[in-house]
Amino acid sequence: MLKPDAVDRYGDEPSTHPSLIARAKAGHADGWTMLVQVYGPVVYRWMRRCGVQSADAADIMQETFLSVISAISRLETTGADTSFRGWLWTIARNKLRDRQRRTLAADVVDGSEAGRLLETHVCNQHDDADPPSTTEEDAALAKSQTLAILRSSFDPRSWRMFWETAVVGRTVADVAVEMNVSNWAVYKAKSRVLQRLRRELSE
Amino acid sequence: MIATTEHCLSLDALKLLVAGEFSTENLESAIEHLDQCPQCQTSFDELAADELETDGKENGTHAANRASRLQVSSDAAESIESACHVAIAQLISQFPVRVKADASLVANRKLGPYNILGPIGVGGMGLVFLAEHERLRRKCAIKFLPRSRVSDTGWLARFDREMRTVACPIPIDTVWLLKCSRSLTNWPRR
User: Fold this and answer.
1) Does the predicted interface ipTM exceed a cut of 0.90?
2) Are residues B51 and B112 in the same domain?
């Protein structure tokens, strides 16, 4: 379980809900899928902001999550400064450095003073303890991904029935008439969506 | 109260249904009942709409508000580059690879009268192992559902349908189903 201060750094960031990390650690396919879908774009954007081209950024993102798959079972979330975002950045940053070193090794003659200086510069260039984005930016991107994922898991009409009644506040009867369905059909859709949202966002 | 095709839902159960607080494992059976029960639907509509709406909103407000706060500009989602989308899709398609790691825990174990010899294949439904009856020396295939799917009634129903299909007498070039069991929720132990 993430410490309260770690969760607070994300505000109400849903993607770092302990249930999502717990599902991923347990090896549940749906947990992994959601973790990658929510945080994959975050890691990708980190790489792009480090000046990495799109194809390389995609590769580093994949390498990062392949390491996450292996390492998440060992993730300790009880340390004072532990946060999933920080842990993820550490892995991504290391993958970036590794790729930069490999690229450098292919271009520079081993043992040259210039080569050593250049390698040092490349390594130090991405030595920041924090990602090249704010917590709020990453939370916003993760949030939009979470909503998109949840929305795509329902048919558009069901989602609309839920959204118009539970969020917009229209009456069930009003939405039922507009969509040419029974009141029960609207309630049924609303119940299913609420059930899923409660499970994904409120655990 | 668990809804069945014979028993109608109570008012409290209907309120839970609207509020999204119905138990997950019984939700679909409750919905199925109301789909087929005009009496329950009538009861549903006859209840004070405000009472249901109020109770439903109060109980469902938290989840719905969370959803509304997640509503960010569509530009945020659309700004994700295609290279990222492709890479994510490739990553997700590789997740069954993890299932293969579980195969090592099953091979060389015993399941009833069968000795598990080794994995045959991995698919979306789970792992398939080659096994041999210890006395009859007859080889067969044993399919295991992923542990995470055991409590999923939809997956179990699909598994059952597949088993019934395979069990039907059919031509000689089709495998024969010998046995289907659900008693393996705690097996194998890590």
Assistant:
1) no
2) no
